[in-house]
Design a protein that fits this description.
single chain, mainly alpha, 3 domains, 14 helices, 0% strand
Length: 358
């Protein structure tokens, strides 16, 4: 039928038998038939992969990701791409695989959509396709717990892609849109939204914990006070803003104020902890430097009281090697100052041979 209609249309255009309106109508019908055939061919490939007994979940995921990428790269209209992607996730959801395996496969689909080249697929187009991917899951005939797990997988794929922050922010919204537009009952929609929210909130917690670890792991002696703290604050802002919006949007208006207040309180407490840990970086840096200079002077002065080589060697071993409480900076500065003083004494000895040097 597709070939016949294409042949008739081509012949009609060449002979100018059809009016422009007739040509347009025939082209629309041909596009529709082509899209349906492409969808059928794609679903067949997906089924072949899903039911291949020789391939494990990882291989199935990789192969279905490749099919997804081919659909996204195709010259078809975004509406057609969306319909095909919806068919892919619906087929995966309806398969007889274990729920965790299906979730892993749709996670791969989510990751592929999120990371696809921006030059061939705009952000609004990605959002439309992501919504369709979720719609395919939501409307599948599989059990609700399986659909919840797959919805989580789809959203996890977005966060794990570590792509552009704007995409990370918009894709979970698109998943919510797919849930809202699916033909399922209200309680199922709420369950799927809750599953999606769980992933977004977990992503927010992860980002916060990672930033906390980064800041706590900073060596205060190595901090560039203004520059480093500013960058850490900016990192925190960038990381949090991409996951806060989806979390807030997932809740009803009644819950919004409460949820917003809770998140702001958490962030405020987090910032206060950072402030109390670091205090004023400039003051701390000055204190550390002052303490280091004082300790170096004390060690050099004490070393000067040792008259014999044996005493000096014993002092160096006890204070600069065995004493693990000294910082690397103090050790290096002390050794450097001792060497400078020794060089000065040797220079003086050359000028005045009566001076004794060790």
């Amino acid at each position: 039928k597709q070939k016949l209609l294409g042949s008739v249309l081509k012949k009609g255009v060449e002979t100018q038998v059809f009016s422009p309106e007739q040509q347009q109508l025939m082209q629309q019908n041909l596009d529709k038939i082509t899209a349906e055939q492409t969808k059928k061919d794609t679903i067949k490939k997906v089924n072949d992969i899903l039911f291949d007994p020789l391939s494990n979940t990882e291989l199935k995921t990789t192969n279905i990701q490749a099919i997804t990428a081919n659909v996204l790269d195709s010259p078809a209209k975004v509406e057609v791409k969306s319909e095909i992607i919806e068919g892919i996730t619906n087929t995966v959801a309806g398969s007889s695989l274990e729920a965790k395996d299906k979730a892993e496969i749709v996670k791969g689909v989510g990751k592929t959509i999120a990371t696809h080249s921006d030059t061939s697929l705009s952000l609004p187009d990605k959002a439309l396709i992501m919504a369709s991917a979720e719609k395919g899951i939501a409307e599948s005939k599989t059990d609700l717990p399986d659909r919840e797990l797959m919805t989580k997988g789809l959203v996890e794929g977005v966060y794990e892609s570590k792509t552009d922050p704007e995409i990370t922010k918009e894709m979970p919204k698109a998943v919510s849109s797919g849930i809202n537009n699916s033909n399922i009952n209200g309680s199922e929609k709420e369950a799927l939204k809750k599953a999606k929210d769980t992933v977004s909130e977990a992503a927010l917690d992860r980002e916060t914990q990672n930033l906390n670890k980064d800041l706590q792991g900073q060596n205060i002696e190595e901090i560039q006070p203004h520059h480093d703290i500013y960058n850490k604050s900016q990192d925190m802002t960038d990381a949090l803003k991409n996951v806060i919006d989806p979390v807030l949007e997932a809740h009803s208006e009644e819950q919004m104020a409460k949820k917003t207040s809770s998140i702001l309180n958490d962030i405020s407490s987090y910032v206060e902890r950072i402030k109390s840990t670091f205090r004023d970086p400039l003051d701390i840096a000055k204190e550390k430097k002052k303490e280091s200079i004082k300790k170096v002077d004390e060690l050099v002065k004490e070393f000067g009281t040792k008259s014999s080589t044996e005493e000096q060697q014993s002092f160096i071993k006890a204070n600069l090697i065995d004493d693990k409480t000294l910082s690397k900076e103090v050790r290096l500065q002390t050794i450097d100052k001792l060497l400078q003083e020794q060089e000065q004494k040797q220079a003086e000895a050359v000028e005045n041979p009566s001076i004794k040097t060790e």
